[in-house]
Amino acid sequence: MPALGSEVRAVRSLKQVLSIGGSDSSGGAGIQGDIKSMHANGVFGMTVVTSITAQNSRRVRAVYDLPLDIIKEQTAAIFEDFDVSAVKTGMLSSKEIVELVAQSLRAYRAKNVVVDPVMISKSGVELLRADAVDTIKTKLFPLARLVTPNAHEAQRLVQDKVRNLEEAKNAARAIQNMGCQAVLIKGGHLIEERGCDLLFDGKVFTPLYGEFIDTPNTHGTGCTYASAIAAHLAKGSDLESAVRSAKAYTTEAIRNALAVGHGHGPTHHFYFLGDAR
Question: Is 95 tagged catalytic?
Answer without folding.
Answer: no
